[in-house]
């Protein structure tokens, strides 16, 4: 004798584990156990045909292909560029090692185009609230770290500007340039932030274990060199795969986009300062 159940999603009466109208699964006590969640996570991370791993592989091994598939309508086998961006952003949000897209108070007040204005604003704030620079720096940088990670969507939109300007003849849809920008920022999150953060933590741990100075291995010049190299690889390959450019065309476009993207990163950091400052 079959027991009837009412579907929680569509209200259909059905027998068995799955609703024959909408496909919703009937929840059983075992589905609510902690072991069910653990096994689900394990299965998701180890499944060879899972969308996540397939998407990560295509982003890292064949830049631009995910964007091309998305614009062509081939979306069932992969996560969308927007989905993988927010997943990478979530992981980045949880990493404490260093802040690729953040800027220290010193950088904001001394090394960027708006630094003179920023320094005047900070000095006025210190005088008004009777704070010393060390107290303000601690407060500012904590808020800036939080804001930087929440503001990455703005960086995607800024990144799409030089990409679209350089490739406007290759892709008729603005959404195409934005899609490629999502993939570009995701690549930077995965490689130049998450992977490098993990590598940096390992280097620091080993250096401390052998009583060496980790600063000898970890410095801004090294990270800038690595970042420029990985971005050139991604953008050159992306030009080939997404925009169907020649080798020569991909080289100059990738070089121009690196300069444009770094300019947008500077604009993002300026925007970050003013938003962070007014949120204090």
TrEMBL record:
Keywords: Membrane, Transmembrane, Transmembrane helix
Spans traversing the lipid bilayer: 78-98, 150-168, 180-206, 218-236, 257-279
Pfam family, one: DUF3667
InterPro entries, sorted: DUF3667 (IPR022134)
Protein name: DUF3667 domain-containing protein
